Amino acid sequence: MLGDSQFxxxxxxxxxxxxxxxxxxxSSDARAIFLEDMVVVGDAxxxxxxxxxxxxxxxxxxxxxxxxxxxxxxxxxPDERRRAPIWQYGKALRVSVAFDLQRDKALMERLRxxxxxxxxxx
Length: 122
What we know:
Strand content: 5-15%
Oligomer: single chain
CATH class: Alpha Beta
Helix content: 25-40%
CATH topology: HIT family, subunit A
Strand order of the largest sheet: 1-3-2
């Protein structure tokens, strides 16, 4: 799903299904599927935006449900920010562009088509 914040257009969050606390609570097969799905989403974001790379983060510090943050990174970001973890932008900036269904619907559809083209369902 697209993240609540879209200050970096294409930011996504991948949720585990069924819900587990961490990768360590999954079987080897389930881990492989989750991690493959994470990369598939990253590939789709690369193809649907002008991002030059993707940062992947699985933190598990505040939320006890396994999820992965998929952050597109853009050459238009300031050098000092582009080379740092996304969290160093500060919360005020990270939440400055909230998800908006009307604005983000076209990107969601492009992502859905890209993911389907890779043989996955959304």
